Amino acid sequence: MSILMRLSSESKRVSAIAFASWVLPTPVGPKNMNEPIGRPGSLIPARLRLIALTTFSSLHPGRLSSGAVHPV
Fold first, then answer.
1. Model's pTM, two decimal places?
2. What angle do CA 70, 63, 49 make, to 5 degrees?
3. Per-residue pLDDT tens over the stretch 20-37
4. How far apart are alpha carbons 63 and 56 in whole angstroms?
5. Element at 69 (helix H, strand E)
6. Torsion of CA 7, 12, 14, 19, to 10 degrees
């Protein structure tokens, strides 16, 4: 085996060891990605609900009564 081939294979082995020891950060979020974040039983996650409410209230001021959205 030539010196260049030996150095090349050694370099690849060192890179593989370094890559294998690389650790990703622990994910933060819901444990089950199929469950939306929001009120239990809600089909719309809290953030989307807040965005929709904010958009509606800015487009139709005075249309909200006691926090409930009424159909137009």
1. 0.28
2. 60
3. 666 677 767 666 666 656
4. 9
5. strand 68-69
6. 170
